[in-house]
Amino acid sequence: MPEPEVAAPEPAPEPEPAATAQQFGSDVPLHERERDPKGGILLNEDEDISLRYPAGLTLTSDGLEPDMSIEDEDLRLFDLVLQDAVNEDVADLHIKEGHYIHFRMSRGLRDRDFPKPTRKWIEKVIFSMCPEHFVDKFKEDREVDFSYFNPKFGRFRVNVFSQTSQWAMAMRYIKNDLPPIEKLGIAPICLKLAEAKRGLTLLAGITGSGKSTTMAAMVMHLNKNFRKHIVTIEDPVEMMFEDEECVIEQREVGLDTMSFNRALKSALRQDPDMVLVGEMRDATSIGAAMRAADTGAMVLSTVHTRTAASVPGRLLDFFPEEEREMQRKKYSEVIVGAVAQRMCPTLDGGMVPAQEIMIGTPLIKQKIFDGELNKLPACIEASEDDGMVSFNKCMYDLVENGRISKEIAMDNCTNPQQLEMWFQGIHISSGIV
Predict the structure, then answer these.
(1) pLDDT at residue 431 greater than cutoff 70
(2) Range name among 6-15, 218-227, 233-242 with the lowest pLDDT average
(3) Which residue in 161, 136, 158 sits closest to 235, CA to CA?
């Protein structure tokens, strides 16, 4: 008797491939998404990056869980605003009563679809951030500067002010995790300037030109490679440094010291190798910085002017006419270098710093001592072998290297006629008059 046929077993179903960022349907709740190895959760390509850390949830070692750390509804909304800002990699936030919140990104301002701030909401936010010792000053002056640290997102520089009798504030996001120095696009000579044993180096540029980032990179370079004692005096403290090879103390004006001038005097008694001063604001702070540089410390600071060659003239503008000659000669003795920056949009959608660099060579010192400040641009152009570079040369190199367009270079250079000639292959030395 023939044996009955046995049906062949059905093949086992193939395992479904793991979900990817392309396969989530709009009906898959965010809290059920897989974790992204880069942080947060996986998103579809058409989803806003601000969803990476979903509203009301926090990322833990066990996955996404409800964030119950903030009970107040107003402060929870502010937490979501900061969360969105950090996800979008913003530079600044602009918040004022009765208007949409705006973020400044690499390509400009964009409004965000949060509820328009009310007076009650913005006052609660301000007083939740403002240091207690600044509250009375804020109520009296109607404006205040301070730094705000949030454990989830990091540090912000905050300016709160009144406009048309309504509250407003601007917040600058301070990215404490700088990319590797070699990827910042700053000239290697900047790091060499930081290594000087004494003297004064100034970083110049308008607001948003990357001065603070370059200054932080110079400190990081020392911190990784040299055994030095560094004291910073800032208003407010921005980038936070952890001691590696260096011993670093950071003092905030209004919190740790009452003024730049007092802190500078005190710093000279603290055995510093470098003193970092957040900004040169007046004749008193400039005079104190030059005295510190003259007595044996390396001083690093910033000043608001557009070119490296104009730095000496800008410093002298702070002093009365009868003091300028004396201060000019003093500056000629302590100058180590001056670096001016302009941020330029790149062809690939990023940003790159263009730098003009003036170094305190004997030639530069002599021109400053003699009061021939108008000859400094020509001295910079003629001193490329010493590490100096003009904005025009920097722009030309960025175009030749495929980083920026000719149009961007022409918009940001100091001598468009000269740069246009270079693009046409015509190179004429200006010489030193």
Answers:
(1) no
(2) 6-15
(3) 158
Domain 181-423's class? Answer: alpha beta
DSSP state of 346: -
- Strand, coil or helix: what is 54? coil
Q: What is the pLDDT of residues 146-179, one digit of tens each?
A: 889 887 788 898 999 999 999 999 999 887 777 7
The enclosing H or E element of 344 equals: strand 335-345
pTM, two decimals, is 0.73
Q: How far apart (Å, rounded) are the C-alpha atoms in residues 281 and 313?
A: 14
Indicate if the pLDDT at residue 216 is higher than 80.
Answer: yes
SS3 state at 157: strand
Structure tokens at 295: 């007595």
Specify whether the CB–CB gap between 58 and 86 falls below 8 A: no
Q: Where are the domains of the chain?
A: 70-174, 181-423
Query: At CA 226, angle to CA 205 and CA 185, rounded to 5?
Result: 35
The CATH architecture assigned to 70-174 reads 2-Layer Sandwich (3.30)
Assess whether pLDDT exceeds 50 at residue 14. Answer: no
297 with 265: CB under 8 angstroms?
no
pLDDT band for position 66 (50/70/90)? low
Question: For the segment 299-311, what is each residue's pLDDT rounded down to a tens digit?
Answer: 999 999 999 999 9
* CB contact at 8 A, 360 and 336: yes
Of 383, 397, 293, whose CA–CA distance to 335 is shortest?
A: 293
Q: Are 311 and 221 in contact (CB under 8 A)?
A: no
CA distance 51 to 24: 14
Q: Please, are residues 138 and 160 in contact by the beta-carbon 8 Å criterion?
A: yes
Domain 70-174 shares a fold with domain 181-423: no
> How many angstroms separate the CA atoms of 361 and 384, rounded?
12
Nearest of 344, 350, 318 to residue 411 by alpha carbon? 344
Convert the pLDDT of each residue in 350-395 to its tens digit: 889 999 999 999 999 999 999 999 999 999 999 999 999 999 999 9
CB atoms within 10 A of CB 299: 27
> How far is 247 from 116, CA to CA, in rounded Å?
45
Residue 143 is inside which H or E element, if any?
Answer: strand 143-150
Alpha helix positions (H), 186-256: 188-194, 211-225
pLDDT at 16: 42
